Amino acid sequence: MKVFATYNIKGGVGKTSAAVNLAYLAAQEGQRTLLWDLDPQGAATFLFRIRSGVSGGAKALVRGRTGMDDPVKATDYDNLDLLPADFSYRNMDLALDRAKSPTRRITALLATVAADYDIVFLDCPPSVSLVSESVLRATHALLVPLIPTTLAVRTYDQLIDFVAAAKAPRPTVLAFFSMVDRRKKLHRESMAALRDGRRGIAAAAIPAAAVVENMGPRREPVNVFAPASEAARAYVALWAEARDLG
Amino acid sequence: MLVADREFVAADGVADIDRAVQEALARTAGRPGKHASVLAEPASSLRRTWFDTFDWRLHRAGFALWRTQRSKASGSPRLTLTTRDDVLTVATPAQPQTAARAGFPLDTVVPAGPMRSLLEPVVEMRALLPVATQRFVVSSYRVRNDDEKTVALVVVEQPLGGRSGEISRGGSRVKVVASRGYSEEAAVTARIIAKVSGLTPSDTSMLAQALTVTGRTPGDYSSKLDIALSARMPTEYAVRRIMRALLDAAQRNVPGVVAGTDTEFLHDLRVAVRRARSTLKVAGGALPVAQAEAASVALKWLGDLTTPLRDLDVYVLGLDELAAEVTVPGWNSSQLEPFREFLVAAQATEHAVLVRTLRSVRAKRAFAAWAAVSAGGDLPVDDIGAVQPDGSRVDSVAKSAVTRAFKRVIKAGARISAESPPSDLHDLRKRCKELRYSLEIFGSLHNPAAQRALIDDLKKLQDCLGEFQDTEVQQHAIKTNASRMLAADAANPSTIDAVMAMGRLADRLGERQIVARGTFALLFERFAGPQPRAHLAALYERAS
Question: Which chain A positions have a beta carbon within 8 Å of B181's beta carbon?
Fold first, then answer.
């Protein structure tokens, strides 16, 4: 079982859109895929028309009182299941802190479903916390969306430092540009600046496109309702770069 | 993932079950405690082809594999695999070509990925055969909650009959498939469907229903012997019954051998021949002498006929595993490719020879001689008459055959020392096979627990002797094949590399042979000990 996580310290950069679309693409390839929506806001859960809520909340899940596969729901797509978000995930740090070996806890929980899934996506909340440390240890490939602004370089370097300082095993990092508007000079320059001398940045870039925003009202992956769109093709290209990492 | 929940079948003659289902779902939508809405997907016709191996390995493992080709919808065919607790679906861009060999290697049917990984250990070296095909008109209804989330899928499948392609009046099925995590909602839907007039819960699988057209049933072939004998049967009749069952097994495998569908057809044919030879050896005295002798000669000929191809099959099947065991520095298994090509070419030649010989007059005569000792073996048990006062009963023949074979194993094994030549171990292996076949042939007369235990004891010893003998034969064959390859193409550098690599394989086989020899003494000591003897004694005790 291979674990991917979409993660950035900042919010609103396209983590959930990437997690939803890439998980869908993995499932379409025949991989038994689970998406765990770790963000208490539950955007990925909403996008799959599933209601948030896990019996016993974060505490029961972290302590193992609720089995990992108990709250799992099927999405409307073949081979793709979702472990829904729960508002109590905002306190998952506390639950982890009280558990034994907190940074190994998510790895241990995922091990209980290893026979059922080939791929797991973790859609992480935007923070630097015990949750993100635990995610880093459990993850084989960390997918990091970056909006191409001047701050992107700083954000990226901070994140690389954070991963380097984390306890082993550490994931392979693949950053990708998100919400890209190639008409903007600043975007083009920022992308060039970040790519200059740095490895681990995907060639695929997700455009700032209405179809991505339309995932909200439609509550479907882009690759379902607009498979020929530039954004859908970008997710396909990104998945092609990401699938063999880790 | 979707989890199959409830299935219903429409009574024959019920008209338009699809409309009845559609109306039932529409009528209840929005009512308290029921679904919020139903989304009908466009009806389409589809062809569903089920796959399994000749010996039903998927069915036995609780798997079902089928390919669905929608004729109207765009997109590639989809493969679905259901296991005891999982459902996997995958698109199949490459369709297997028309069945020139009446079967397909797994990797031509199932793309690389989790589905193939689940299937590989079950299917092993066998080909997948299309065991049944059915055409349907399919209507699907997504049963949704307030969030327009699918909580269950209702699928109406109406078979298309004959050449006219019209919907058949019988055999329609309605499935209610629960989405994982929505079992309560799906149960409500199943109750709505259960009330549709003309539907009753189904007690047969889709595959079983599709197979009714072909006259087959899942699991109708197994290489395991299952011959029902009773203790009081006259020996002659019992022998004919065994020979009949073995002849049937052999004849069922011949088409697969001729077509080259997979290597197990030949394996099973050889096993049937060897079991038949053993039967004649231990109980052939109950048959007319001339008949038994003719059959013995014919069976030996059939067995010898198949040996060269089987030896090559074994090499090719085990080559990758053997190559992976070589760990010397600088080892590059790709250097073995010319050897593999040599073996595959030799396989094709031997296969052609075997096919030609199996179609010969001599082969027909051999099978006729086998049929002669099987005649009457398919009579119903009530028609066979009682044992004559001076005639023998099968249970006494079986008991003495098994006991004698056991003693011969012990005697032959006890003679083997560290200095014994390989031929002594080979002879012991033959004695073990005689015991194994005697146990299997007369298996239905034995206490099942004792039979299982004794075969387990014996199998360990047989595996060790098999490893010893196979490594001996394969080392010899590598030397012979290396000489042939050099004689054919010594100037080619890749041939030289291959021959060098084959030397590494021979070394590895030599190491394995030493290990097998070292293990033998311990295994034989155990087999000659009190436990297998106790199992032998318990064979003829009644099951508690």
Answer: 50, 71-74
pLDDT > 90 in chain A, percent:
61
Torsion of CA B484, B490, B494, B495, to 10 degrees: 10
Residues in chain B: 544
* Cross-chain Cβ contact A49/B180 below 8 Å: no
* Angle of helix B394-414 versus helix B530-538 axis, rounded to 10: 170
In a domain, B157, yes or no: yes
Nearest chain A residue to B178, by CA: A74
**pLDDT > 70? residue B486:** yes
B363-383: per-residue pLDDT in tens? 999 999 999 999 987 776 665
What is the token pair recorded at B232? 């009081």
8 Å CB contact between A110 and A23? no
pLDDT, mean over chain B? 88
Q: Is residue B385 part of a domain?
A: no
Question: What value of ipTM does the predicted structure carry?
Answer: 0.87
Size of interface A-B (CB pairs under 8 A): 58
Q: How near does any CA of chain A get to the CA of B86, in Å?
A: 8
**pLDDT score recorded for residue A143:** 96
Residues 6+ apart with CB under 8 A from B38: B25, B26, B29, B141, B142, B143, B144
- Judge if B190 and B246 occupy the same domain: no
Contacts of A72 in chain B (CB under 8 A): 180-181
Residue A80 with chain B: CB contacts under 8 Å? 1
Q: Cβ contact (<8 Å) for A50 and B147?
A: yes
Residues 18-37 of A with CB under 8 A from B: 28-32
Of the three residues B152, B178, B211, the one that is the final residue of a domain is B211
B247 Cβ partners below 8 Å, 6+ apart? B272, B276, B367, B370, B371, B374
Contact B1 A118 (CB under 8 A): no
Q: What is the pLDDT of residues A163-212, one digit of tens each?
A: 888 888 889 999 999 999 989 999 999 999 888 878 889 999 999 999 99
Cα of A201 to nearest chain B Cα, Å: 27
Mean pLDDT of the B432-458 span: 94
Coil vs helix vs strand at A141: strand
Name which residue leads in pLDDT, B96 or B86.
Answer: B86
- pLDDT reported for residue A99: 79
Pairing of strands A172-180, B2-10: unpaired
**Nearest residue in A to B82, CA atom:** A79
Write the Ramachandran bin of B331: left for phi over 0, alpha for psi from -120 to 50, otherwise beta: beta
| B226 falls within a domain | no
Residues in chain A with CB shorter than 8 Å from the CB of B147 are 49-51, 219
- pTM for the complete prediction? 0.76
Q: What total number of domains does chain B contain? A: 2
Domain region containing B475: 235-377+393-538
Of all residues in chain A, the one with the smallest CA distance to B145 is A49
Please indicate if any CB of chain B lies within 8 Å of the CB of A72: yes
Question: Could B115 and A30 be called an inter-chain contact, meaning their C-beta atoms sit closer than 8 Å?
Answer: yes
3-state secondary structure of B134: strand
As a whole number, mean pLDDT of residues A37-65 equals 91
Query: Are the beta carbons of B91 and A30 separated by less than 8 Å?
Result: yes
Domains of chain A: 2-242 (3.40.50.300)
User: Rounded CA gap, B268 and B17, in Å?
Assistant: 46
pLDDT-based confidence at residue B386 (cuts at 50, 70, 90): low
Confidence of residue B330 (pLDDT cuts 50, 70, 90): confident
Same domain assignment for residues B114 and B247: no
Q: What is the pLDDT of residues A109-164, one digit of tens each?
A: 999 888 889 999 999 998 888 888 899 999 999 999 999 988 888 888 888 888 88
Residues in chain A: 246
Q: Note the pLDDT tens digit of each residue in B304-313.
A: 999 999 999 9
